[in-house]
Amino acid sequence: MSKIAQCRGQNPINKNIGIIIPAYNEEGFLGNTLEALKTLPEIENVLVVDDGSQDDTANVAKRMGAQVLSLDRNYGKGHALKQGIGCLDNTIIVFLDADTGNTAKEVVKLIDPILKGSADVTIGKIPFSKGKGGLGFVKALSQFGFKILTGTKCTSVLSGQRAFRREVLDERFLSYKGYGVEFGMTVDLVKENLRIQEIPLEIKHRVTSKSLEGFLHRGRQFLNIFMVIVVKGARSFNLWGTE
User: Fold this and answer.
1) CATH homologous superfamily for the domain 3-236
2) What's the pLDDT tens digit per position in 50-89?
3) Pseudo-torsion of CA 14, 199, 40, 163, nearest 10°?
């Protein structure tokens, strides 16, 4: 039996707030992230989905007391999150990036609007890091595509820090490959007429540098988001004869 099947075969964890952290080769950042979460009494469960890491990610998570679901290979973020929500039955589910380190405790700000009943979904709005990122093409594409597909604006459409009322979190929102998952998910959430709030967070995470590796990373991100826009646009305008 696979580890995924074992997880799904267990009785669901029935606590109030659970955090899912998808992680691929994050041994250098994950420990600080989990340590920060220990300071939050609101959090009942922390699940790290080890997405086929080749380093010590899973062992770091276990040593820090987190629950761990280890996938047999690297499937991608969307698949990892989908497996994660199959293991938790919390009232509120929070997605958190593994590399947020000591600032991970900021995610508690995402929870309050949902507890108060004023939002179904909250998305972390993270400050822009000047001089460290790329040239802004990915962000510009995502903003343009989001406006075209939804007619609305979301400045944090690419943010990985999100919280959901469990009832509205559908696995189909995560059926996107690669770096297109946050973008595609947010478009779907808007089309479902869910109440979404962007919440400012003072979160910091690893910034992709202006190196060859960094530009290749952003190129893959650009392509993944572009493909989501193309597919959704074609469906919206019935270009492929779909219903």
Assistant:
1) Spore Coat Polysaccharide Biosynthesis Protein SpsA; Chain A (3.90.550.10)
2) 999 999 999 999 999 999 999 999 999 999 999 999 999 8
3) 20
